[in-house]
Amino acid sequence: MKKNTRFVCQSCGASYAKWTGKCTNCDEWNTLVEQIVESETEAKSAIKKAEKSGKILDYKNIKAIEPSDVKERLKTDFDDLNTVLGGGILMGSVNLLAGQPGIGKSTILMQICATVSKTKNVLYISGEESAGQVKMRAKRLGAESDKLNFASSTSANDIAKTIETGEFDLVIIDSIQTLAMDEISSAPGTVSQVTNCGNLIIRAAKSTDTAVIIVGHVTKEGTLAGPKVLEHLVDVVINFDGDRYGGFKTIRAVKNRFGSTNEVAIFEMNEKGLKEVKNPSAALLAERQNTDGSIILATLEGTRPILVEIQALVTPSNFGYPKRTASGFDLNRLQLLIAVIERRTKLKLDDKDIFINVVGGMKLQDSAADLAVCMAIASAAAERKLSEDYVVFGEVGLGGEIRSAFRADQRIAEAKKLGFKHAIAPATIKDSFVIPTKDLRETLIKYVNEK
Prior knowledge:
Elements: E1 5-9, E2 15-16, E3 32-36, H1 40-53, E4 73-74, H2 79-84, E5 89-90, E6 94-99, H3 105-116, E7 122-126, H4 131-140, E8 148-152, H5 156-164, E9 170-174, H6 191-208, E10 211-216, H7 229-233, E11 236-242, E12 249-256, E13 264-270, E14 273-276, H8 280-285, E15 294-301, E16 304-316, E17 324-327, H9 331-345, E18 352-358, H10 370-382, E19 390-392, E20 395-396, E21 402-403, H11 408-417, E22 422-426, E23 434-437, H12 440-448
Parallel strand pairs: 6-10, 6-11, 7-8, 7-9, 9-10, 17-18, 19-22, 22-23
Antiparallel strand pairs: 1-2, 1-3, 4-5, 11-12, 12-13, 13-14, 15-16, 16-18, 20-21
């Protein structure tokens, strides 16, 4: 008898009776995959079996539970990465690492293997690369070790069985989208395969107290590919961001059951792999030329203060519709700030193309970058530069008011360390280093001579 099938969207999980090309729920194209669906009779039969097979749980009062001993953590050679992970890779934890293709996921995992395999047994499982390819990377990064093992497999059943042996302290799986369970007929990477493979591996890891790192793919928008339930299942979700062709790369935890999600590790790539950047502010400002449209922003990456250069270019528009482009800064936020500048300061920008660039490949998620972006645009439009002695930070409201910034004391300390004399910042900050400002119009008139 023919099995009942449905077409399930691999992006959002919506189900359809027939293939339609586009998912009307999430507006994604070519994400519908045919899957076998159990009949109502089969589903009812499974529920009845489950009702008979269940047993009463062994429970106890919360006061009688003794706190478990602190589990061992596997340390890497990267101090900042250890901090992002909450002190290292916790034994028995399942960590999901996501990032753009070619950004360096396999590189940093091999560097982690090089450190951990000095004292612990490590298994690197790849479903994408051959043994020869992994061997070449291990040799280049100095990761060859008697305790580092390799296996090539796309079977989640075999991988879970291997983890259940308890022979390995750390298992790396590259990647979850290549795995498939024998009991599920859908293709690897589908919603059902990713969810069930993830469940199978997590159970094996928890039962043997084995640390597991799973590599996940990302969509073209930069979000983790596959079902959202996978992020709920794992203990730690780590995002690897940055420009894959150069510049700085950042690792931050968007979910961490064992530590903070406010920390960030900053890396740069060289011929020997990824290297931690201990003083990113100095590196970002090393090649700076003080010209119009250049403003130094005191920002935060997690809880880490960094000085970064904001560059703006304002040119007459050759077409009826002015162009706005932003690299490393949210384009919608840029549009909003331009509207505030035009309305609150009377600076005419509706016939100008505006380009914003955050130097070093950094991606800003700090609301206190508003004032620096506005001053960079005004500086470029007026063709006047700001003094080299100033750093800038502060959030800009729709009324043109300058609002307070988070962790201002750390931003100021970083600016002082690099030799700056003053900070143009919100008036709510009480510090002799700060030149207080309350209004965007007054700030632009005073420091970039608004026309």
